[in-house]
């Protein structure tokens, strides 16, 4: 039996940033692997930090405007914040479960690039 799923994050994503993120998360959390919630928190704080830095601490609308259109490399891969909707746009990875080094991991075999919220395209 093969388990196939999709998500915007997987621990095996090959990039220096993801490797560093996974190592730091595992060290801080008794060897656990980060999941989509962990990377979502990381990305959310990154967006807030960069917006606060750009606005020199100004809040309100200036902070929200500084979040729009951000483009960055996340541990999950390329991400940008849609300037119209402020929604995250990111890749979705189609993956299957495989044993790697004695542990089960989701392994990507296909990527759907730059996915926007499908509910808003109706």
What structural class do you assign from the helix and strand content?
alpha+beta
Largest sheet: 5 strands, antiparallel
- The parts where pLDDT drops under 50 for at least 5 residues are none
Q: Work out the count of structural domains.
A: 1
Q: Which architecture would the CATH scheme give at its second level?
A: 3-Layer(aba) Sandwich
CATH class: Alpha Beta
**Which bin fits the share of residues in helices?**
25-40%
Q: Which sequence of SSEs, written as H and E, runs from N to C?
A: EHHHEEEE
CATH topology-level fold name: Rossmann fold
In CATH terms, the superfamily is Response regulator
**Arithmetic mean pLDDT:** 89
Terminal CA distance reads: 35 Å
Number of strands: 5
Number of helices: 3
Q: Proportion of β residues?
A: 25-35%
Radius of gyration: 16 Å
Characterize the overall form.
Answer: flat
Task: Please summarize what this structure is.
This protein has 122 residues and is of the alpha+beta class. The chain contains three helices and five strands. A hairpin with a 6-residue loop joins strand 3 (77-81) and strand 4.
Topology:
Blueprint lengths: L3 E4 L8 H13 L7 H19 L5 H8 L3 E4 L2 E5 L6 E13 L2 E13 L7
Antiparallel strand pairs: 1-4, 2-3, 3-4, 4-5
Overview of the molecule:
This protein is an alpha+beta fold and 122 residues long. The chain has a single domain (4-120), classed as Response regulator (Rossmann fold), CATH 3.40.50.2300. It is 33% helix and 32% strand. It has 3 helices and 5 strands; from the N terminus they run E-H-H-H-E-E-E-E. The protein has helices at residues 16-28, 36-54, 60-67, and strands at residues 4-7, 71-74, 77-81, 88-100, 103-115. Strands 1, 2, 3, 4 and 5 form a 5-stranded antiparallel sheet that branches. Strand 2 (71-74) and strand 3 form a beta hairpin. Helix 2 packs across helix 3. The termini are far apart. The mean pLDDT is 89.
């Amino acid at each position: 039996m093969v388990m196939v799923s999709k998500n915007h994050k997987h621990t095996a994503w090959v990039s220096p940033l993801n490797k560093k993120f996974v190592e730091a998360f595992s060290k801080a959390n008794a060897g656990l692997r980060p999941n989509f919630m962990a990377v979502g928190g990381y990305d959310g704080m990154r967006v807030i930090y960069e917006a606060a830095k750009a606005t020199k601490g100004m809040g309100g609308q200036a902070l929200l405007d500084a979040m729009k259109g951000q483009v960055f490399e996340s541990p999950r891969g390329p991400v940008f914040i849609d300037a119209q909707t402020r929604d995250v746009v990111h890749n979705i990875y189609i993956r299957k479960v495989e044993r790697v080094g004695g542990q089960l991991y989701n392994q990507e075999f296909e990527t759907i690039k730059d996915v926007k919220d499908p509910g808003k395209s109706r």
